[in-house]
Amino acid sequence: MSVQVLVSQKGPLPISVAFNSPGDLTAVLEVNGSVWTTTANQMIGIQVQLDGVNLGTANIFSNGASTHRAVVPAYFKVPLKYGVQHKLVLTAATSATTSDFNDFFTAVIHY
Prior knowledge:
0% of the residues lie in helices and 61% in strands.
């Protein structure tokens, strides 16, 4: 199995990256990272968007405030087209979600 690293960087969110697919294929997009909240007992996470379409979120429930939390990795089946530039955007999933330079994000395509 081959992989293509799309994002491997510090925050804050939002993060946007353009990439080209190596072929016409259906792949799996994996998204990981950390986020935090200023208020206890909040669902927080990373919203994942590909080519303007919301795919879903990588979430974690935070019982405490002001603590960076690793989200549960999220996997999305994505159709990719060769010769087309695709755009991946990672944003805060909720209004309670915060990120800063202490958070790190990765997004990988598995072929």
